[in-house]
Amino acid sequence: MSETASSSPDWEPRAGHRPERAGHARAAAGALGVEVIAVFGPTASGKSAVAEALADRLGTEVVSADAMQVYRGLPILTNQPSSRTRLVAIRSLADEMSVGVFATLAHAEIDRLVVDRGAAVVSGGTGLYLRAALVDLGVPPRPDPTVRERIEQEVDVDRASAHRRLAGLDPRAAESVHPNDRKRLIRSLELAESGSSLVASRDRLWDGSTRRPTFVAGLDVRDDVLERRIRARTESMFARGVVDEVRAALSQPLSRTAGKTLGLAEIAELAPADALDRIVVRTRRYAAYQRKWMRRIPDLTRFDGERDPGEIADGILAHVRR
After folding, report:
1. What is the pLDDT of residue 136?
2. Which regions in the chain score pLDDT beneath 50?
3. Which of 58, 147, 208, 308 shows its CA 20 to 30 Å from the CA of 50?
4. Which of 141, 137, 1, 5 lies closest to 70 in space, CA to CA?
5. Distance between CA atoms of 133 and 167, rounded to whole angstroms?
6. What is the DSSP string of 131-170?
7. With contact defined as beta carbons under 8 Å apart, do 66 and 126 qualify?
8. CATH architecture assignment, domain 19-135+208-321
9. Residue extent(s) of CATH 1.10.20.140 domains in the chain
């Protein structure tokens, strides 16, 4: 059964967070001029530590915008934070997760934190999920499974014909989707049949608007430093028992989205040493993809991700206040 995100008001303070500081922190949050601070960067850039430092200084909490951290059962493989973070471990591995569902959950958590604490911190390495948390994308619901199955069969039988039908329903989407791009062609046809458009969602994604006054910080880390961090983190995952964790996860039903978790297939199919090396390679490629997202996120301000997380957090707050 799916679960909703927990937002109990009787939250446990973070270690070192004293109740008498809460009023001062909330006043500081109110003086920022923004209600949300988002932290983005490639994997292993230190996003979680910086976000936690920001949340401590503002007397609030972090909302995760990571597509795979929503799942229970893979805390090591998905690098879940040890401190309280919203939208982490809220779904069974058997549950599907979509951008539209995630956006609804994220908006609710952000709004609660802004009302209760004066500000919210959002952190994540999944670019689309981060934007969905910050922007009202108006993502239409997923179609009935029978509709998707019908369109998948249509595309698989004759992609050129399916693309011509898309051109008749949504010419702008047809111009932006190549006939050989199966995934986007299927989604474009689903949206076109429901009266929506893939192009409209894309335009909203990059128009620079946000639901609430928001500052987006991006963490820059040099390639050689990031490479060392990725390998060290992956080696730590294996030392902490990620192989047993994955075996336990694979013994139960997995949704299609959970099954895409980076490292799951490698650990299931390869010897540990080979799996480790393969995960490092794939993680490096994913980090390069995340850096492309950094260049596309509107109004992102870059900060040196090699400094101490507390110093980075102080620098972000100083920049926001200026």
Report:
1. 85
2. 1-22
3. 208
4. 5
5. 31
6. HHHHS---PPPPPPHHHHHHHHHHHHH-HHHHHHHHHHH-
7. yes
8. 3-Layer(aba) Sandwich (3.40)
9. 145-199
pLDDT at residue 207 in the model: 65
What are the φ and ψ backbone dihedral angles of 222, each rounded to 5 degrees? -65, 150
Q: Tell whether the torsion through CA atoms of 105, 111, 115 and 121 is positive or negative.
A: positive
pLDDT > 70: percent of the chain:
86
With beta carbons less than 8 A apart as the criterion, state whether 93 and 47 touch. Answer: no
Structure token digits, residue 153: 């069969």
| Sheet containing 214-220, strands listed edge to edge, beginning at the edge strand earlier in sequence | 85-86, 62-64, 120-123, 36-40, 214-220, 300-304
**Tokens matching residue 231:** 């390998």
Fold of 145-199: Histone, subunit A (1.10.20)
Residues 6+ apart with CB under 8 A from 12: 84
- Residues ≥6 apart with Cβ < 8 Å to 76: 237, 240, 241, 242, 245
Q: Enumerate residues 6+ apart whose C-beta is below 8 A from 247.
A: 268
Between the alpha carbon of residue 252 and those of residues 98, 249, 258, the distances in Å are 21, 6, 12
pTM above 0.90, yes or no: no
Cα separation, 309 vs 188, whole angstroms: 41
Parts of the chain belonging to CATH 3.40.50.300: 19-135+208-321
The DSSP result for 240-268, as a single string, is: TTHHHHHHHHHTS---TTGGG-TTHHHHH
Place of tokens 């952190």: 123
The whole-number pLDDT of residue 200 equals 63
The first and second tokens of residue 189, run together, are: 């046809």
